[in-house]
Amino acid sequence: MDKVRFVILYGGEWSNSGGKFNYQYGMSKVILVSRETPYGSLLDIVSRLVEANPSESSIKMKFIFNSPEVLAPFEVLNDDDVQVFLCENSDVNTRTSLYFANVFELDNGNGVGLDNIHESLSSPNDFHNANVFSIGVDNDDETRDSRPSTSEVPSRRSRVASFQGIETKLSTIHGSYTSLQSIVNNVKEVEVGDLFPSKEALQIKIQLLSIGNHFQFKVKKSTKTLLVMSCIVEDCKWCVRATKLKDCESFRVRKYSPDHTCSLDALHFDHRQASSKLIGHCIKSKFERTSQSYRPNNIIDDMKKQCGMTLGYNKAWRAREVVMGLARGPSIEGFKSCIRPVVAVDGTFLKCKHQGTLFIATSLDGNNQVYSLAFGIGDSENDQSWHWFFTKLYGLIGEMSDLVFISDRNLSIAKAVACVFLNSLHGICMYHLGQNMKAKFKAVEVHDIFYKCSKAYRVVEFNQIMR
To answer: Rounded to the nearest 5°, which phi and psi values hold at 9?
Structure first.
């Protein structure tokens, strides 16, 4: 199979001097691809090389066509454009570079929130409405008209849909409050040919459409390569069918019937597409101020006023928990950043139908409160179960300096710690050891001496108590 070599230029910007287009770049890389490489594969390859995430940014790839006339850079949008570019680079006399830019890169906490998310949802092509940086020359009409491809290519509206990176935007905890109503009212209608970075992105887009248009849908079939959705009413003709592109995670809408043949008045009050996760993302700015109390009943009232939906208390409570989870982040990340590296581990039996043992690992935060770190379920407290639990825990926190484990006198725990966490220390819980001493030594004086010694921080102090 023929290979094509070309240079990727990235990290720069376009300039137009006297009608001549130049790309001032900072970095470059050389890659080798097959002559039959499709658009999705090229996008994935380039994204990995320049460490860009296609699900968090809308990526533009352009090249300059070798021509006596001065032409604007051509944008690579589909398989036909890729073949034109690779054909140019197959001949040593007409080689050209691929210019790469993230033109809609999501902010990581400094400007993109729910207060402006509806702008990108309402107009997929108007990237300038959000907080973005431009690559300068970007005349889509001129680019399409001057492209030397003779095949019929989809218009720019066959785009990476506006919902790209929606979850990253929604996870930004800041910005003024934007209601769910204002978001769903500005969502652009789906069209055949729309391209989404993932199956989940397409599902969320349809969720918002269903809330805004007051209908509900169900997923008829969902596989790794196919997604089929239809109206919740059996005889309704509304449906969406999307398939996965080859060699990438993107999904393209192949069929879309937007008209409903059912009565929209027959909907349930509790909208099934208004999930607790979606609602939680939309109300998170209500929790900006610590003095502001926003309870499940407040969420129910707001959803009733804004979208005419009657939420159950449990869903409203779960939505609130979603927001709290966004604010706190994963417990493992919190442990790595701001918790003392002292982990208490223990196991307790379960009384459920299948019984078994619950393994837990906890720490203390700066306010001396219990900080839950991890838990697992096994058959019983034995060598294999504890080794499995510590192996999973090691996969999360890895090696840490000055890491200490505290437990009872269970020998299986001691073996597992010594085997998995080679550089950590293992100590015995003062309470458990004290209870063992009470069972063996009846003299009260012995108990008092033990507790005083266990709380001694200096050797001199310890020796004084032992005398």
So the answer is: -110, 130
The strand pair at 342-349 and 357-364 is best described as antiparallel
Whether domain 3-109+119-154 has CATH 3.10.20.90 = yes
Domain map (residue ranges) of the chain: 3-109+119-154, 272-329, 332-428
Q: How far apart are the C-alpha atoms of 398 and 393, rounded to whole Å? A: 8
Torsion of CA 438, 441, 444, 447, to 10 degrees: -60
Of 145, 221, 147, 208, the closest CA to residue 182 belongs to 208
Please give the average pLDDT of every successive group of 10 residues along the chain, which has 467 residues.
76 66 69 83 77 64 75 81 82 71 40 35 34 31 35 34 35 42 63 85 82 79 90 85 86 87 60 70 64 75 72 82 71 72 92 87 86 89 93 87 91 93 91 86 83 89 87
Contact status, residue 311 vs residue 255, Cβ threshold 8 Å: no
E strand map for 83-205: 98-105, 195-196
Cβ atoms of 200 and 192 closer than 8 Å: no
